[in-house]
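step: validate -> pass
step: tokenize input -> pass
step: predict -> running
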Amino acid sequence: MVSMDTETDAQLAVRAAQVGAAVVRDLYGTALSRTEKPGGDFATAADLAAEQAILDALRTARPADSVTGEESGDTGASGAERRWLVDPLCGTLNYAVQNMLVAVNVALRGPSGITAAASADPFSGEVFWTDGARARVRRGGADEELSPSPASGLVDLNLDPPFPNAPAFRAVDLLAAPEFAARFRPRVVSTTLAVAWVAAGRRAAYLTDGNLRDSVHFAAGIALCEAAGCVVTGIHGQPLHTGAGGLIAAADRETHEALVGMVRDRAPAGR
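step: predict -> pass
step: emit ->
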């Protein structure tokens, strides 16, 4: 057992994600109340309970840090240089209909960017994590280096709104592209666990629209992909969090270039 006095940020991220994952796992399949959110979204009692457990772990270990939670918003010192980004249950709709494709995401943003992150799968027991330099998966108490690979040909597309770049870019358009079907096989799991899977070699790529800077949903997965050596850019191949925004996280340069080309080719003329 690591003492909180000597626990690194990466170790804390893993522990906090595991604490949240335990709550998610324990409440799975039970009757859960819902809290409605704008845009037809909602949170379950499991989202709220998992986030509270994660926040308790973070606040006890790092009381001077601030936190942004998916459900509770910003708490802690507003001027703190270190902010934890927490998504306690990514894939709430999946979970609510007893689909086990969900993730618990915890990431730490400091002055230099994301320096520690963990994405836990409550049902496999795996925790994908990074200290900002290397990316690993913990299973059964042992850590293994993540190794991206395009071999599966599986590309996960986020089809959930919002679509800030439509009609110039819509992920759904790739599904109708002959060149996409000839090379890749689409998947839509509707949880950012799939971003971690790119780092782990279980997906060739992940693609989404949106403004993802300091996103509680995506910060952990992006950090994992970057630390694992994936090619990570915006939807047009531009530096992440610039221009049109969005995300293409690919296992290798060839896959990335193919997807950037397909996005470009599907854009309406003049855009």
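step: describe -> The chain has eight helices and 15 strands.
step: cleanup -> pass
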